[in-house]
Amino acid sequence: MNKYKKYRKLFSLLLLIFTFFYVIQIASMFYYPAEIKIAKGEDKNIDILLPFSLNVSNNEDTIVQSTYNQYSNKSFKKSYKIDGIDAGEAVFELKLLGLIPVKKFDVNVVNRQELIPGGNAIGVRLNTKGVLVVAVTDVLGVNGSRYNPAKEAGIKPGDSILEINTIKVKDAQHVVKLLNKIKDEKVKILLDRNNIKYEIEVTPIKSMQDNCYRLGIWVRDKTAGIGTLTFYDTNNKVFGALGHGITDMDTGNLLNVKYGKILNAKISNIEQGKKGSPGEIRGVFYETENELGQIIKNSPYGIFGEITDEFIESNNTKPIPIGFKEEVKEGKAHILTTIDDNKIDKFEIEIVKLQSQLYPDQKSMTIKITDKRLLKKTGGIVQGMSGSPIIQDGKLIGAITHVFINDPSKGYGIYIEWMLDQIKSSYQVNEELCKQS
């Protein structure tokens, strides 16, 4: 009798363990991405546990073909092969016992884009729309009293001054010129704050310091730095770089682009990254020569614009396919970057963690530099390497965006899809160029 009780307990325990793992597997199906992307002409296998099945909700055989592939008694799974026949969208349904709808999957068949990977060190020069307010301060008037006209009018650091009395502001010197022409009369100022425009009125104060009329603000109208080109497309003549936006060092705000360009840069020095102190690539570039492209857009996920014909003609690198975010996997990969003169080099890395992202984010994956040459030269990821393309299994999958301050050998990367989302089409980019000209 005790023997049977022992077997029953053992059987109950095994059944409980089996049920536990089966429930986990079923739960994992519900967390499967609601959108599945397949390249045209390629296929994808999806495993479904019994008693569930996968069915096309409508007759969409012109877009995809779904075939029941195989069944395994050991894993209680059905494997479905979905072939991408033509570009378009199809809807699949996960059903219980073939009858009860449980979840829908949108299958998006797309043409796999091919891009030329960068790795070039670039100089970035950016002029803002109007001027950016980086600080608000007191003005010492000619009567010895302190005034703060900007603060009283509601001007804040991070605001962009676009117009003064309906005149478009060109740069910081233009602001000074306009205010001293208006003098102590009340002026109308058009501000941009977080992409929302405001109109305010303020009266300049004559400063004891230099007898000039001032609002009590510090402004900036341009910025420059070193970064890395991520990709360019010879068909649309567009480029993407950095993997993150250009922000003002004082306010942290994303800079509004009036005009900008990328130029060929030459590496002059590298400061190694150390724990608690990020390193930096230092380079030189000259505004009068070696222009590579014009910046159209400064977004949180990189800078984008039109590449020059001269740069395209001077490079013979072949395009490679992009990798969708669902295809990126943990493990070995490599980056392309420049740390000596103008030579683009390949360095080994490891993708140690992936983020399942439905919406754009700069921190899509955690990467680790494993290449001994790069670790010896830079200590890992340093400032200026942002935008270095990440390549895995022959596909362009993303770009470096950040470094870990406490461990320079590690950092973040962004999925290439999030960068490409910023370029809707070559027509939109060209339309923006036409508006600016």
In short:
This protein is 17% helix and 48% strand. Strand 30 and strand 31 form a beta hairpin.
Q: Which key features would you list for this structure?
A:
Thrombin, subunit H, Pdz3 Domain, elongated, 6-stranded antiparallel barrel, 7 helices, alpha+beta, Immunoglobulin-like, 437 residues, 3 domains, single chain
Description of the structure:
This protein is α+β, with helices and mostly antiparallel strands. The protein has 3 domains: 30-111, Sandwich (Immunoglobulin-like); 115-123 and 222-420, Thrombin, subunit H; 138-215, Pdz3 Domain (Roll). It is 17% helix and 48% strand. The chain has helices at residues 2-30, 149-153, 172-182, 309-314, 372-378, 416-420, 426-436, and strands spanning 35-39, 43-49, 52-56, 64-72, 77-84, 88-96, 100-110, 114-117, 121-136, 139-140, 146-147, 160-164, 167-168, 187-193, 196-202, 205-206, 213-214, 217-233, 238-241, 257-264, 266-271, 280-284, 291-299, 302-307, 320-321, 331-340, 343-354, 365-369, 389-392, 395-404, 407-415. A hairpin with an 8-residue loop joins β21 (266-271) and β22 (280-284). It is elongated, with a radius of gyration of 28 Å.
